[in-house]
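User: hey, got a sec? need sterol 22-desaturase folded
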Amino acid sequence: MARKVFNSPAYVKPCVVDVAHKLLGADNWVFLDGKAHVEFRKGLNGLFTRRALEIYLPGQEEVYNRYFKEFLEITKQAGGKPVPFMTHFREVITAVSCRTFVGHYISDDAVKKIADDYYLITAALELVNFPIIIPYTKTWYGKKAADMVLAEFARCAAKSKARMAAGGEPNCIMDAWILEMIKSKKWREAQEKGESVEGLEKPTHMLRDFTDYEISQTVFTFLFASQDATSSAATWLFQIMAQRPDVLDRVREENLKVRNGNINAPVDMDQLESMTYTRAVVRELLRYRPPVLMVPYVVKKPFPITEAYTAPKGSMVIPTTYMALRDPEVYENPDEFNPERYYTGDAEVKGAKNYLVFGTGPHYCLGQQYAQLNLVLMVGKASLLLNWKHHPTPKSEEIKVFATIFPMDDCPLTFEERKW
Ligand code: HEM
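Assistant: Yep! Here you go:
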């Protein structure tokens, strides 16, 4: 039933809270529907290909190296006492996202400011909100934070345009997109003038020139879509790995092997993909604790969901990802965290239609490969550089919803350097 809703673009489109239009800009591509949406998305697909994802890896390694040192410092500052790490995971994920999306066009201070303020944006998106923005309310703070991010990203777009035009190497999503625009322009102009296109690199998708603001708006949607979900996954990943040393040991072993015993060696895409056990851990983590529990859709025309029931136009239909991911017919003991189902088991095949973690249909998650490989990189590196301990409380397994899901006690952890 959930799949049917996701896969019925003729009847439904994503339904966002009113304030989202105000935060992201009403003319943002994520609010497009039908053909216009498909067309715009095609132009973004090239930013998430395997080849593109490889370019972003060094920036991500750099951020993790820096933040893992900070994790050690946090425990030290607390005198070895447990500290709730949820907000720290949110911060490192913002920093990784910023480096991936806008490279070094943004200062460390600006990254820190975005990370600090981002929760205001999430808070502003609470489902129940006033339709107007009243000063000093959550939506007002959220709008201020969103405007700050948009202005920062627009400045990055201007810098990226200048560097790419001068023949610079792309190393972030913004560069990759702008490079495709430059290639498209050259190709178009050559064709218009009737000149030979020989020697020109054909763009994968013909793009028009986007303004700095449009680029900023689009890259902001990536931050918006990834921030809460990836932070949720990262928090649970560290909690569960600490609870399951047997699993963490195997992650460690695999990561050490791929790096030929050098714990500080960076990895490339082939190496990341070759880590089938660590990938199974991430896959199972996302099944066990799916960050996005449901995706609200709105009915565009009467929608016969079943033979007995037709949802009227204007109603909300909210497919949940959770039930399909806990289906006992597909996943034996569904309430158990067991990476083996994706390593030696048949969950991938048997549950191919159940895996709604990233949605399905025309709006399925654009960043799903990136999100999973990024989590593989994060936990793999952490396993080699850090030891960490979870300090359970009665609320550790209880779930709170802050856009996505988090442990109710915000995940109290202590970190120490791993000595080999
Ligand atoms: C674990 C992390 C993530 C999870 C669980 C997740 C999940 C989802 C889900 C459930 C949807 C709605 C799909 C639908 O309606 O069918 C979605 C949409 C989307 N996601 Fe993700 N996501 C994650 C990370 C990311 C990242 C890292 C990016 C970008 C870099 C991203 C970009 C997007 C975009 C742009 C959309 C909207 C696509 C559209 O409307 O065409 N997501 N995601």
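Quick note: The beta strands are 12-14, 83-84, 297-299, 303-304, 310-311, 316-317, 386-390, 399-402, 404-407, 412-417. Let me know if you need anything else on sterol 22-desaturase.
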